[in-house]
């Protein structure tokens, strides 16, 4: 599993293999069972994650308990709730494991100490975040401009693994449609 992280990190840094191995040795990894809640809406986030194996869902519940899915994170994706701009720092989202997961678990309170200890780590993380934010912005713009059928086509093209990995009601919520509409759209593509 650590090798996956090293190979991913190489895309964003010119640190040597030995330096990356030292960093990875200090990073905790943990296994989480399907259904584990990593962060509850309203809690203050103190961890960040990187998916080595499995699928994590970002979602929120309204005052009536209706859940809306905003993102799925799968292998080689970082999972962080950025909310330092918020007055109370409380998360507007929950994070839950859709499958059994193996995750890198970063402690946000120790982030600066890691940067100080490993020269080049902060620059590498910044490049990773920039890529993730750019992709998220592009996905959001495409989502807003697309019809439900176009959203499903995009999902088939860009993230086809989600079709069989996540419950259909969560997938429908992610696409901004009802489960019944998703069923109708899927039938058109069979």
UniProtKB/TrEMBL annotation:
<dbReference type="Pfam" id="PF00027">
    <property type="entry name" value="cNMP_binding"/>
</dbReference>
<keyword id="KW-0010">Activator</keyword>
<protein>
    <submittedName>
        <fullName>Crp/Fnr family transcriptional regulator</fullName>
    </submittedName>
</protein>
<dbReference type="InterPro" id="IPR000595">
    <property type="entry name" value="cNMP-bd_dom"/>
</dbReference>
<dbReference type="InterPro" id="IPR014710">
    <property type="entry name" value="RmlC-like_jellyroll"/>
</dbReference>
<feature type="domain" description="Cyclic nucleotide-binding">
    <location>
        <begin position="11"/>
        <end position="67"/>
    </location>
</feature>
<dbReference type="InterPro" id="IPR018490">
    <property type="entry name" value="cNMP-bd_dom_sf"/>
</dbReference>
